[in-house]
Write a structure and sequence with these properties.
The strands form five sheets. Strands 8-9-10-11-19-16-15-14 form an eight-stranded antiparallel sheet, with helices on one face. Strands 7, 12, 13, 17 and 18 form a five-stranded antiparallel sheet that branches. A four-stranded antiparallel sheet has the order 3-4-5-6. By secondary structure, the protein is of the alpha+beta class. It has 15 helices and 22 strands.
Length: 628
């Protein structure tokens, strides 16, 4: 683990016994990041052209992104301090705003057009201007204000992508309305009406049509409607804000279960380079006065996330946020992300808008759910089980519902959505060479040449208590027919029991992988009859134990430069060959733990019975029996 590259105040173990962090730590972290981007500003401060891979939008838009996303951070810092910050911080963002919206400037921002990246960044600028209104907007001369309005007015009547982008238009046009500029009421209402189509209950939205569940639900689908309400004011929200607060409250009741004892969020979904943005919804719950979480839990969660990344080198020694998780790792990013994209992490600093005397800053920290007891949380809306164990502080997400595919048409199997499970301590093998082999946390049918089937469109079946199930259609090269695969996960103690029911021809083998563990050195591996294990130097262990329908011979899939957690990674695997064709049942025990594991003993003391009707029963040493 690299040393932190941010100079922070002394820890406060009285107020914050779990993280040591206070508001002063957040302010110091914000200041370090704002100072670090300054050398990369263009002369007029309208763009911040940070080093790193250029996005598909190009250099100029990446520079605009650098301005907009760091301005969002600056706005929270400025407003949270009541303007009592360095005057230079305010001046440089005001100057950048003037230069960026001046069509004659060499640093002018591109006009807003349908579905353009400028829309994303304009929303951050609109929110920043609202929050810093007394210190920036109100001090602009009339001509400068008109130019800002002219640029933002590109939203009026424009078309956005049909997902969280609808909300960029909503908040930006509401800002226009708040300063007396022309705007479209139908654009705002239409965007807010549209997200109703994506609300699936229990505080959960899907990010557009399909089963798109990830951190965008918290840092976008909940955040922007309440930021809109903040701009519109209580007299202008038409009663919608009450609904949004109720939904966020529902969402937050289980949100802390996504975080490990070390502060790590579950590593699932896209845009994970935004890191601290995962803390945004808990801050928004406090800011909107709708949170069900105790103030000490809110700060413990958010500070835990911030401390987790700071202690692992993000920001880096330059003070910059690299494209990756801890360090730069491009296979885990998307082509729309450029060098400044990670600064959507600014949303995670939303808590600075709460005054220093607010209970979230003054009350004593409280432990996360995973720090208190074993956690089993069923989330039927996304089709997930969350499984946390206090002895190692790990949280696992068992995935039977999120695939990030459209409802119809071609489907893909993004490794950050298609896997059977994710965790706070591991990441999927994301590099193309490893993704092609589709090994970790995946049940694959293997063609005679070894080509694996993919898990693309996931159809949820059940999700309740400690059990979830789904089905998907597996396809193999050279064959037109779909081979149905039904998978069920059941949780018991630190274990996940997986039961797969497969229909495939006799020449098709079956393979299942467990969690991929990664490290700076090659993980240790061990195998025995019907089991395989991989372990990092720090003791993080991934285990697969075959209980029924698997060969005695097992395997370990090793990869290099495939995983965001380290250059060397390894996955334990089970195989089933010599099948007779037709339906088959495969039962496995899966573990990810920092505790000692003896898979050879587990295989002998667990009792697995498969009845003629296909029902599976597994009895554990404590007498508990799970049936699927």
């Amino acid at each position: 683990m690299p040393a932190p590259y941010v100079r922070l105040p002394a820890t406060d173990r009285v107020r914050s016994p779990l993280t040591g962090w206070t508001r002063a730590h957040w302010e110091a972290l914000a200041d370090r990041q704002l100072d670090a981007v300054l050398p990369y500003a263009t002369p007029g401060f309208a763009q911040y052209r940070l080093p790193g891979r250029t996005s598909w939008s190009g250099l100029v838009l990446d520079g605009l992104e650098g301005y907009a996303r760091t301005f969002l951070l600056a706005s929270f810092r400025i407003a949270g301090a009541g303007g009592d910050v360095s005057p230079y911080l305010i001046e440089r963002y005001a100057e950048g705003l003037i230069a960026g919206t001046d069509p004659e400037s060499t640093e002018a921002w591109p006009a807003l057009t349908d579905c353009s990246q400028q829309m994303v960044e304009a929303a951050s600028i609109a929110i920043g201007l609202h929050e810093t209104r007394p210190w920036i907007w109100d001090r602009l001369n009339v001509r400068a204000q008109e130019r800002v309005v002219d640029w933002l007015s590109g939203f009026v009547g424009a078309r956005t992508w049909e997902n969280n982008w609808r909300l960029f238009q909503v908040v930006s046009e509401q800002f226009l309305a708040s300063v007396g500029a022309p705007y479209s009421r139908s654009d705002i209402d239409g965007g807010l009406d549209r997200i109703e189509d994506w609300y699936v209950g229990d505080g959960w939205y899907t990010d557009g049509d399909g089963r798109n569940f990830d951190y965008y639900i918290g840092w976008a689908m909940h955040l922007y409607p309440l930021m809109w309400a903040r701009i519109a004011g209580p007299e202008g929200d038409g009663g919608r804000a009450k609904v949004y607060r109720e939904r966020l409250a529902q969402f937050l009741t289980t949100y802390p279960q996504f975080f490990g004892a070390d502060g790590a969020p579950v590593h699932q979904g896209r845009s994970l380079a935004y890191r601290l943005a995962t803390a945004a919804p808990v801050w928004m719950g406090a800011l909107a006065d709708c949170t069900p979480l105790a103030p000490g839990l809110t700060r413990r969660l958010a500070s835990g996330v911030a401390r987790h990344f700071v202690e692992r080198g993000a920001p880096d020694r330059r003070g910059l946020l690299p494209l990756g998780w801890y360090d730069t790792f491009l296979p885990a990013t998307q082509p729309y992300s450029g060098p400044a994209s990670p600064y959507w992490a600014s949303k995670g600093f939303l808590g600075l808008l709460l005054p220093a005397e607010h209970p979230v800053w003054t009350e004593r920290e409280l432990p996360l759910p995973v720090e208190r007891s074993v956690q089993y949380t069923a989330l039927p809306a996304p089709g997930w089980l969350l499984h946390g164990t206090p002895q190692d502080g790990i949280v696992r997400l068992i995935n039977h519902g999120s695939d990030h595919n459209p409802l119809e048409g071609p489907a893909t199997d993004d490794p950050h959505y298609a896997k059977l499970a994710y965790s706070t301590a591991t990441a999927p093998e994301a590099a193309p060479h490893a993704w092609a082999r589709a090994t970790d946390n995946h049940l694959a049918l293997l063609a005679p040449d070894g080509t694996p089937s993919r898990r693309r469109r996931i159809h949820p079946l059940t999700c309740e208590d400690r059990r979830a199930s789904s089905r998907h259609d597996a396809y193999l090269p050279g064959r037109d027919e779909a081979f149905p695969v039904e998978s069920t996960s059941l949780l018991h103690g630190p274990w996940e029991l997986r039961v797969h029911r497969v229909e495939a021809p006799a020449d098709v083998a079956v393979r299942e992988g467990g969690y991929a563990v990664a490290d700076g050195s090659r993980p240790h591996s061990a195998q025995g009859p019907g089991w395989a294990l991989t372990r990092t130097e720090s003791g993080l262990t991934s285990v697969m134990v075959g209980l029924y329908g698997w060969d005695e011979e097992t395997g370990v899939a090793e990869e290099v430069e495939a995983n965001v957690f380290g250059p060397y990674s390894a996955t334990p695997c089970l195989r089933a060959t010599g099948r007779t064709g037709g339906p088959s049942v495969h039962v496995s025990l899966v573990a990810l733990t920092r505790d000692s594991v003896h898979p050879e003993a587990l295989r002998t003391i667990l009792t697995c019975v498969v009845r003629d009707d296909g029902t599976v029963s597994v009895t554990f040493p404590d007498g508990a029996t799970l049936t699927a």
